[in-house]
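Can anyone check this?
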Amino acid sequence: MIRSLDALRSRLTELRSGAEGGSASVALVSTLGALHDAHVDLVERARESADLVVVASFVNPLRFRTSADVEAYPVRRAQDDALLDRLGVDVVFAPDAAEILPAGIATTRVSAGDLGLRYEGRTRPYYFDGLLTAEAILFHLIRPDVAVYGERDLQRVFLVRRMIRDLFFDIEVATVPTVRSDDGLPISSRVALLEPADRRAAALLPRALEAAASNADRGVDACIAAAQSSLMGEERIRLEYLNVVDPATFLPVDEAHSGRALALIAATVAGHRFIDNAEISLP
């Protein structure tokens, strides 16, 4: 595990220069730590994409509302290290916040713009600016050829791709389909915290997306109505948003939109927040 910027630069230079031809390609998997099965797929996709795999494990304070929220985030370095060692990761970069953000939360930030205030950003207006800022720093430090993300948060993927384009990073984005448990829920650390009744309620969220997809041939209003109807009567679910967006702009589709679209959902169950999405096809 590498904790300092100097050690990171030194190790990457060593690994790159030791490769055949003196120029190994690098894939980056950026995480907050507290790794689970879904991260395994990200690392395996990274291994397929480049010669070297770098996993960043950084609890980015810019992504949280308060310092108390940062401190509450689970840190399991020993378990994470064992998993990444088993997966054969070449570099694990796990810096303290002061190493990456010497100015703290007063640091210069990348702005996600208006789109960063929609959907996930509506309830967490600081989130995407903080996320993009840390990603830009990691891109600058690590200089990856490929960055790998899960498809559970497609808004993140869209905004990272846009930042790469707008700031002229020479980086390819690779994505991995959402890893799901038997009841359809995306695998995350939050799912394990649910009581059985709450988990059954949360499992209605992917079913709502299935209902949206099944009714998409009737138009956007019908698919949203079908998704909402599938959640009715479940008092444990507090729906935050349910939107259908254009993958090219990530803005809500209009009535004239035809073809591929994305249904997005976010809700809170028993105090735990869940997001999910599904691809749908509008007539």
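Reply from J.R.: I decoded it. The first helix runs from residue 5 to 17.
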